[in-house]
Amino acid sequence: MKHFDVDVYNVCMEPTHITSIASPTLSEHKAKGSRFLGYAYPLSQADDLKPLLQKLYDEHPKAVHWCYAYRLGSDGMQFRANDDGEPSGSAGMPILRQIDSAGLSDVVVIVVRYFGGTLLGVPGLIQAYKQATVLALQDASRLEKPILKTFSLRFSYEKMSEVMRLVKRTEAQMLSQDMEMEVSLSVAVPKSHEATFMQQVQDWHWLKWEA
Fold first, then answer.
1. Is residue 102 in some structural domain?
2. What PANTHER family does the annotation carry (predicted)?
3. In terms of domains, do 167 and 117 share one?
4. Of residues 73, 66, 72, 28, the one with CA closest to residue 50
5. Does residue 134 form part of some domain?
6. Is the terminal CB of the chain with fewer CB neighbours within 10 Å at N or C?
7. Same domain, residue pair 70 and 162
8. Whole-number Å distance between alpha carbons of 96 and 70
């Protein structure tokens, strides 16, 4: 493992939390006979989306579209917008823009459409998917989620109590632990405590660590 220096000042300036939603919500918007049901869910990883979609397929077998968008993570680089057969850019992107406008991450919104017999055109679809998303998100309670940084630590067993005091003081989560000739730990440290954590591990020359 490498032991390297970091700029603690820059760590302190980085965001420490993301804003998500606390629980699922449901909205309904009608446009020229079509019904748009907006389902907003907390979402931690993209793999969790499939069972949510399957649940809505099962609940709404007569619907014609299940469009969605999500954004994940603290850097905002994980996202997807899906039109599910609607004209390109008329569903997924309007949903995603409302997630972004609300300043949210770790969120997916799925809008289920029942066709009412009248074509809405692209502008009408954009407005309908936007409004269903706005209604779903405005009813959602906000949740501040700490951004976590993972560290791998290796040290001799007699230093265990010192390391565990640091883990507790910085509210780090224990991810894994292995104790043989020496102790190996993997911990997730909240960004709000990262500077304190890194300053301490850099001072411990007996500790091998990497981020």
1. yes
2. IMPACT FAMILY MEMBER YIGZ, IMPACT-RELATED
3. no
4. 66
5. yes
6. N
7. no
8. 6
Place of tokens 């890194």: 198
119 shares its domain with 92: yes
Q: Where are the beta strands (DSSP E) in the chain?
A: 17-21, 25-31, 34-42, 65-72, 78-82, 107-114, 142-146, 148-155, 173-179, 183-190, 208-210
pLDDT digits (tens, 9 = 90+) for 52-108: 999 999 999 999 999 999 999 887 789 999 999 999 999 999 999 999 999 999 999
Q: Which residue has the tokens 């299940």?
A: 66
Please name the residue that has the structure tokens 């606390």. Answer: 22
Backbone phi, psi, residue 56, to 5°: -75, -30
**7-44 CB burial, b ≥16 within 10 A, e <16:** eeeebeeeeeebebbeeebebebebeebbbbbbbbbbe
For residues 24 and 51, give the distance between their C-alpha atoms in angstroms, rounded to a whole number: 14
Q: In what order do the strands lie in the sheet with 148-155?
A: 173-179, 183-190, 148-155, 208-210
- The whole-number pLDDT of residue 17 equals 85
What domain range is 80 assigned to?
A: 18-144
- 144, 162, 177: which is the final residue of a domain? 144
Q: Is 1 part of any domain?
A: no
Across residues 150-171, what is the average pLDDT?
90
- Measured from the Cβ of residue 136, the count of other Cβ atoms closer than 10 Å reads 28
Length of the chain: 211
| Prediction pTM value | 0.76
Tokens of 144: 């501040």
Provide the CATH number for the domain around residue 198. 3.30.70.240
